[in-house]
Design goal:
Largest sheet: 4 strands, antiparallel
Strand order of the largest sheet: 1-2-4-3
Number of helices: 5
Structural class: alpha+beta
Number of strands: 4
Strand content: 15-25%
Radius of gyration: 19 Å
Shape: globular
Length: 173
Amino acid sequence: MIRFMLKIPFITFEQTFNLYSRKEIASIKESFWIAFGRYISLHLNSEGEKTNWINYKTGYKDLYFRMEADQKKASISIQITHGDKEKQKLFFERLESLKRIFEETMNEKWNWELDSEDEYGKPVAKIGITLKDVNVLQQERWPEIISFLKPRMIKLDEFWNNVKDLFEELRYI
């Protein structure tokens, strides 16, 4: 009797990346964000209004709520991108002074980084949390990614609605 063994290699994230062209990756990511947008659009913001959750408007030029999903992780963060490092620090310190309220609202601890970088290497202050070992290119992982991002974005909106007036004096600095 002759036996044959078939070896199937484990495919890593890096190898998955190589299976798709840039155009295919962009298309899959776009499909994910469309699906996410449709799913979360059913929820009104904390003021009872419809909102564009994916391009959330904080009302402040250099203060953003960012959601990202790629081949290795999904993350959500508050990013302060002011070009002036001292002004960036003022926004961060104001948020930091509200850390207890933030953590009570979010019901979890996030990472607080005054000196960080965005995906383009630009200096930013960032408060965020990451779900590791998920791949947005794998559609069967989308429910896990959506279940990570959606409740946090809704809670982030609730937090911001409660504290945004405390940032008014920083609006035009």
